[in-house]
Write a structure and sequence with these properties.
It is built from seven helices and 14 strands. By secondary structure, it is an alpha/beta fold. The strands form three sheets. The protein has an eight-stranded mixed β-sheet with strand order 5-8-2-1-11-13-14-12, sandwiched between helices. Strands 7-6-9-10 form a four-stranded mixed β-sheet, covered by helices on one side. Its main location: cytoplasm.
């Protein structure tokens, strides 16, 4: 089992990811795809007059503040345009893909945090009305049913709270929880950079190997959203996933290249 997470930032070649995925699926590999959609969500939110608001926690993690209107835009893009666009690509390639959000069947489930601590102008504030959380449970039974019947699941946030409320969850950490729950052999975190860079944005400063027992020591090299990827990698290897790879989704055969060792390998 291989869990592939592809991000939603500018420059990602979804066609290349889907062609590579389809070839490996037809060859008999078991895969699940998780995707993001942050770049398109930002564009649509701006166009709808409700621009995104990003907040930084006291520990330095950046995330989207998700009020109810933002959540509805998020669902429209992630569950609609992005998810169905990827499913259509895979269907045209002969893969019977099924697109679902973590809310469907409570595939991803966790506790709803309705407030968040954020640093603004040097002060820590508590912002209320947030719809976020962290994936704590994965409905592997539903995924096993789909896989057993020959369907390739294409998953996306949001998740469900324990009370059935939609919550925005980080896609990389959701993919890590999924990989742990399914006892995956590998977790691929594909984005618009070649891997974790020692001196971002210098792509020649790629860090090629991270020891599994030392992942969090590399957080200092991670910029912005890459911090969540490193955190997700740490959670995955601690949960028993043998390999986590930060790979490049901009061209070529992104999945095959990552599995062959291109990018940053955590093992």
């Amino acid at each position: 089992m291989i869990v592939v997470k592809v991000g939603g930032s500018a420059g990602i070649d979804y066609d290349a990811v889907c062609v590579d995925l389809a070839g490996r699926w037809r060859a008999g590999e078991r895969l699940i795809l998780v995707h993001g959609g942050s770049g398109e969500t930002n564009r649509v939110a701006e166009a709808l007059g409700h621009p995104p608001r990003f907040v930084t926690s006291p520990s330095g993690y950046t995330s989207r503040f998700t009020d109810r209107q933002t959540l509805e835009i998020f669902e429209m893009v992630y569950c609609g345009k992005m998810n169905k666009g990827i499913v259509e690509r895979l269907q045209r390639l002969g893969v019977n893909a099924v697109g679902l959000s973590g809310l469907d069947g409570r595939i991803f489930e966790g506790r709803h945090k309705d407030s968040v601590r954020a640093v603004e102008n040097g002060k820590v504030k508590v912002l209320r009305g947030d719809h976020t959380g962290t994936v704590e449970r994965v409905n592997t039974g539903l995924l096993d049913l789909l896989l057993g019947a020959g369907y390739l699941p294409v998953l996306t946030p949001p998740a469900s709270s324990y009370d059935g409320v939609a919550i925005n969850v980080d896609g990389d950490r959701a993919a890590a929880a999924l990989a742990v729950a399914l006892k995956a052999d590998a977790l691929l975190l594909l984005s618009n950079v070649p891997g974790l860079l020692r001196a971002y944005p210098d792509e020649s400063s790629l860090i090629r190997q991270i020891p599994a027992n030392d992942v969090e020591q590399y957080l200092d090299f991670a910029q912005d959203r890459m911090k969540k990827k490193v955190l997700g990698a740490a959670e995955a290897v601690q949960g028993g996933v043998r390999r986590v790879i930060f790979g490049d989704a901009r061209a070529g055969q992104p999945i095959t290249a990552a599995l062959n060792g291109a990018g940053t390998v955590v093992s």
